[in-house]
Amino acid sequence: MGLIRFLVPRPDRMPAEGVARAYITGLDEIPWPSRIVATEEGLIVDRPPGESGSLYVPWIVEGYGETTLSTASLMERTQPYLLEVELARGTLNRLRNQLSAWEAAGMQVDPSLRQRIQEVVREFALAAVTQEKPLEACKRAGSALAQVMKLMVALAESYSQQALAARRPNGSRLTTLFGADLGEKLLDPIASRNFLATFNAAVVPFSWHDTEKTEGRHDWARNDRQVEWCAAYGLKSCSGPLLRFDTAGVPDWLYLWEGDVEAITGFMTEFVRATVARYRGRVQVWQCAGRLNAGDLLGLSTEQKLKMAVRAVEIVRQNDSRTPAVVTFDQPWGEYVAQMEMDLPLHLADTLIRANLGLAGIGLEINFGFHPRGTQPRDLLELSRQLDRWSTLGLPLLVSLVVPSGGGKDPLARLKPQPVPSGWTPELQEQWARQYVPLILSKPAVQAVVWNQLRDDEPHDLTFGGLIDRQGRPKPALAQLAGIRKQHLL
Known about the structure:
13 helices
């Protein structure tokens, strides 16, 4: 292994558990198996020798909060790098490269924005040439980083406005599906009015865990009423993943068959077949499987889960050939590859597409700001780049989101991932929706955007990730999403 050393004169800029979430990639952006160790002076990265790499690390930026930043590609050398300077270099480099790419695609850039970028370049240059004084250099780099993050927001918002305008000739509205998961309870009148004012589609969970609590006995009552409610109000219905490979997605009795892949596959097959037969023609999108790369479940390997997902797609296509079929992947950046030998989600998706199963799209589940098994906080340009990368698969994308509105104990949350300690509040959740959702909608490949958790006042997956709080009151993000729908969508 080869060592790259970093000095961190301002260790308060790195979250307490930031080292555990850091990773390094090569030019192909695939995380390497590596060992990252904190020292009194900074970090030591032990990675494959002879290869240059980019370090990704959670970092607290003044006035912006925590986000995952990356250095430029760095070679191994005896002299340690100043981490904050290199993060500023890498982030500024990404900003300038994205600006050039969007300009080449026809984006008009305000001259004042270009002037501000030149000012940041000068600020960074002062940091780069004063590295013999590490603390002073890092303070200057931190100042440059704060300015770069503001410029990223301005650039991304300008791009979103121009891209959405280009997609809406003569003021027409986008037909993109815009919805949320209906959850475990039927909506009360107030929640129903808020939902209908905000969304044109809904995700009906079809939870195997809840539908078949006793082996062989199905209770469809709640799902029947949810599908009927959608039809009554003209909402498009999208199924939640029929097969969801996590502990909250399978019935408790299935654990009696742990290790028996043939039996588990048989039970899964029968559930999918029964669900599709019952709701054929009443659902507009089938999410056949999700969270294939979410970790261990029932001792199943990634290959076994992939085969089950293939079987689910085949059953849907056989029993309802007209309705689009989608397979959903979580953690689309694939950070987990640095800690365990697993395939990248993009590679898994490519494998399914090449199998010619008749997939109509790919789903991306982005549980933003959760750890572990979530997506680390990312800036707007990084999200844009990742969506563009998935768009190269050539299929429409369904993007499902959850963003926390707080941290701490949430007794109704069923899954282990917790919000990273970044001061999440309802206001910060609203700000995220205001900045990020228009960017997502601006991408032509994105044909559906759904908020994957509606309520915090009923059992749910992720801590405080809903749009309705524990007292049943709408959070500010719900009104923000309603405004986005009114401005851009049917």
